[in-house]
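Final report, closing paragraph on structural work. Over the funding period we assembled a curated collection of sequence-structure pairs, and we close with a single example.
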Amino acid sequence: MFTYCRNCKQSSDKKRLFHATDFQSLMYVNFTICEILGVFPYKIKGSTFDTSKLQYVLFTIVTCAACFYELMMFYILNLSGRVKLEVPRIISYNFHFVLGAFAMIVLYVSSGPRMRLLQNMQEISSKLPPKSYQKLSKLIHAKDIVTMFFLLWPLMVVIVYKREMVIDTSLEPLRLYIAIIVFQMDMLYINCVCVLKACFKDIKNNLEDLQKFMVNDISSVYHEQRNPLTELKALKKQHLMVSNVVQMLNINFSLQLLATMCITFKQITFFLYFHVVQWQNGISFTFDTQVNSDYFVSQVMFYITRMSLIVWACETGKNQATEISTTVHDVLNITNNEQTKYELQLFSLQILHCNNIFSTKSLIVDATLLTAVSK
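Its predicted structure, as stored:
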């Protein structure tokens, strides 16, 4: 929470401005990569996101080029007669081209709502204390850098061994380019969930601090300086703002996340089919020695790790939001003030109605998703 300086308003304003722009530093690596890739059609003025005409034109060109490539590959594979493959591989590549075009179109169409989402993320994250920012910054920056290097390995294997490149054209590198773009959007989603998780944790910590204050019932002089009822109203308002952003995140990234899940499950399923399972007079599980093991392992591990990161962020974020309800009831059990009790009951009802879960088109993204898939 902000600490307002009554004696020096100008100094307090500077602190608030500096603190508000910290969200941009949290997302610096992801924003920079997206800008290099041409899929960040925004400009940042102080603490405000705005549309950049130049970047938007570049984003339009990138989207059109990606869709043209996917449609051209789809035509060559199915209608040109130049490519002769078995049916399972044709199905696999068709899924790949269709999902790639779908992901790029969704990314382009949702650019406006995504800008509003980022603006709201900045506003709610500005209430985080500096200590939380430091921990969050280390986590997000480390994840963005490590996952980027982790992405380069399977891409290098594809380039070196020329695996999965059925159609030898000069536009083939565009497929790798599209894969990196979709991957960075997934990393942006994880970053946003981590920020929301930190906001929920901050609310919970403030409630626990308020609970200790009410239990200890510190001197009346300090009690006059700190009003539990006022703090509860502020925390309830903050919780509602964070909950609204959770819903915005679900709506904005719903189709994008759905495309990522389809790509992940499709890739793992067909990789296992082509490189591990051989259908010869029944089912026999034997590793195909003709396929380079580095390629197979790197691709499967990449998609498993990618999906696991998304599920981990959503699961821990949901758990953090759920713990607030328990803390509210703990505070309710120790208070004797009727007004405070009434405010806590309203807070509890608000938490119940907000239902802070991370989902995509009614599909809840948490640990149960991986459990269901693994069965």
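The chain has 13 helices and six strands. Residues 228-275 form the longest helix (48 residues). We thank the funder for supporting this effort.
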